Amino acid sequence: MNSSRPAVDASESGARSSSNVLVAPRRRSVGDLLGPKRIGAVYVWVVIAVVLVLLKPDTILTTSTLTQILNNSAITGLAALALLIPLAARTFDLSIGFVMSLAGVTAAHFAATGMNIVPAVLLALGAALAVGLINATVVVVMRVDSFIGTLATGSIVAAFITMVTKEQDITDVKLTGAFSKIGQTDLGGVTLPVIYALIVALVLWAFLERTTTGRRIYSVGFNPEAAKLAGIRADRLRFASLVCSAGIAGVAGIALASTIGAGSPTSGQSYLLPAFAAAFLGATQLRPGRFNAMGTVIAVLVLTTGTTGLALVLAPAWAADLFTGVVLIAALTITGAERRGLRGAKGSLAALRARFRPTTTNPE
User: Fold this and answer.
1) Which alpha helices (DSSP H) does the chain contain, by range?
2) Can you tell me whether residue 168 is helix, strand or coil?
């Protein structure tokens, strides 16, 4: 009886060797790491900074302007980071702006009544997480498209806020005490929300890049059906992602309410577009084709530098929205191309491996 052996001829053997060369991991060069495909937004950031310096050298090159950019980035950064986990799982959450408003109004309301700051914040976070649970139920359990489902949930939340507040900001002298310290405490010119955003970014980076669950979320985002066939509980991950998104949006809303010293019924809604622009632009950085935390941080800084610079050079009010919209369109285009290319490369690689996979002959 002949022993089992690979039934391949010399040409196939040589081809297989070639395929091994193609798929073998290679060490990235400095050029790869610093290339435009990985950190293109950084080069755009540098160009924006140079243009602003040329236009307003006395204003831009100051410590106050730099800290202003950082502080202005904080809430947008938190809002963008709230989107990361659901987007990584190919799920949209269009309710984060409304959740931010709800959390801010809730925290401000209870703080204004004299409640201790800790339970007031916990109640606000509880309200945000409740919306996350509703989102997850609508999208995952009821099978409503995430784009439509979360937008509908956000509309209901907005109606609830309007009904309770009668479209009036919640203001009170009590909000100038412990509540204001959440967002207005200054550490060398940098406010606490910047620290919150950095902590959240580091936690999300470690979670998505260094844990098995994070890798499974990426798998669900790239190919949900294949992930399910591999035994990954995609629905459970999408459910949890929407709850996490609402929780981070709640943190952003509380920080925003503390920063402005009031609970505004509509304060969070203006952050929806910049947050999506930052998340998608971030997906073109560092890990092209993947929504990642550090890329999102870079994208937020690019956007905030652009919008803050436009304000400093006295550009028209509509210029900031135009800038954000153009960035979002460009980021969507690039991210879509990166993902299609990545899926195509993986498919070609799988076909190549299947073509040259060793087979065994039947025993005589």
Assistant:
1) 10-23, 30-33, 36-55, 57-60, 63-88, 96-112, 117-136, 146-165, 178-184, 192-210, 212-222, 224-229, 234-260, 272-282, 293-312, 318-355
2) coil
Where do the domains of the chain lie?
36-353
Domain 36-353 class? mainly alpha
Query: Which tens digits make up the pLDDT trace of 110-149?
Result: 999 999 999 999 999 999 999 999 999 999 999 999 999 9
- The candidate with the shortest Cα–Cα distance to 289, out of 80, 90, 78, 45, is 90
Q: 303 and 325 in contact (C-beta within 8 Å)?
A: no
| Residue found by looking up tokens 């580091």 in the block | 202
* Residue recorded with tokens 């947008």: 76
**Which tokens sit at 99?**
């959740």
Computed from CA positions of residues 139, 213, 234, 283, in that sequence, does the dihedral angle turn out positive or negative? positive
Measure the CA–CA gap between 1 and 22, rounded to whole angstroms. 36
The contacts of residue 6 (CB under 8 Å, 6+ apart) are 358, 359, 360
> Which residues, including other chains, have CB under 8 Å from residue 169's CB and lie 6 or more apart?
262, 263, 264, 265
The β-bridge relationship of strands 190-191 and 186-187 is antiparallel
Q: pLDDT digit string (tens) for 214-267?
A: 999 999 999 988 998 999 999 999 999 999 999 999 999 999 999 999 999 999
Enter the pTM of the model: 0.83
DSSP codes of every residue in 271-316: GHHHHHHHHHHHTTSSSTTS--HHHHHHHHHHHHHHHHHHHHTT--
